[in-house]
């Protein structure tokens, strides 16, 4: 069912410092910061040959990652995102096995303009899991 | 400098349950458990098309992940591993920029039989980073 690891998301307290760390320190190619006000985050993409790291920082009030950063002031790994080709089939399969989908259970349009769902970390070994629907 | 994301490691409290979650629940291909007594872990590999997830469970006394599991009884994301082609050059570059290498600073042979180093999470946005040397 799941395909590629689309990204690993890391919440960071200072986006400029984190960008420098990944570019100058680790020698990776990083994007310019992108504000996503409808998602309450600013994102920097670290482009790796096989996947990407998304550095996230809260944007605006009521950012969904503000609480995470308050609990983890140094930052930390926030979620992993797996690709699926049929997000509704994936959701229904997982729900039938007792996994909990966050929110109202309906896919939303995520940071990449594609349908996404989040699965409860308590059902996935303490790991917040995002599913993103990609073309088959 | 860094290349592919080699793996994301997730510490889990119950390896059989986590394997079933990733195979039956998420529909991924998972390996049989592999005991690595010299590393103090038992590992299950979740094979994705572009990278892998390593599910880790403590093995034996003094497992290096026992403390993590005690703090995170439901499990959680433990580290990310980036590939490099020259681990000593990567280490020296990072140390020159103030990053701290865990342990004595010398590469050890990791779970895949290749030289690895771990970088201090406080220097990497709260994320434990493993570097693994692969063939150029």
UniProtKB/TrEMBL annotation, chains A, B:
Residues 4-134 form the VOC domain. It catalyses: (R)-methylmalonyl-CoA = (S)-methylmalonyl-CoA. One of its GO terms (biological process) is L-methylmalonyl-CoA metabolic process. Its EC number is 5.1.99.1. Keywords: Cobalt, Isomerase, Metal-binding. GO terms for molecular function: metal ion binding; methylmalonyl-CoA epimerase activity. It is an enzyme of class 5 (isomerase). SUPFAM superfamilies: Glyoxalase/Bleomycin resistance protein/Dihydroxybiphenyl dioxygenase. It comes from the Bacteria. It holds the Pfam family Glyoxalase_4. CDD domains: MMCE. Coiled coil: none annotated. Transmembrane segments: none annotated. Belongs to the methylmalonyl-CoA epimerase family. This is methylmalonyl-CoA epimerase. It comes from Elstera cyanobacteriorum. The lineage of its organism: Bacteria, Pseudomonadati, Pseudomonadota, Alphaproteobacteria, Rhodospirillales. The gene is mce.
């Amino acid at each position: 069912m799941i395909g590629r690891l689309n990204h690993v998301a890391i919440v960071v307290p200072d986006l400029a410092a984190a960008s420098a760390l990944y570019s100058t320190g680790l020698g990776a190619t990083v994007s310019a910061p992108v504000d996503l006000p409808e998602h309450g985050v600013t994102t920097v993409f670290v482009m790796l040959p096989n996947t990407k790291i998304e550095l996230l920082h809260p944007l605006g009030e009521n950012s969904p990652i503000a609480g995470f950063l308050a609990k983890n002031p140094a930052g930390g790994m926030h979620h992993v995102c797996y690709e699926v080709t049929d997000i509704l089939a994936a959701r229904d399969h997982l729900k039938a096995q007792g996994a909990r989908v966050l929110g109202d259970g309906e896919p939303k349009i995520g940071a990449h303009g594609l349908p996404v769902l989040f699965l409860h970390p308590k059902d996935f070994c303490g790991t917040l899991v995002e599913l993103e629907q990609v073309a088959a």
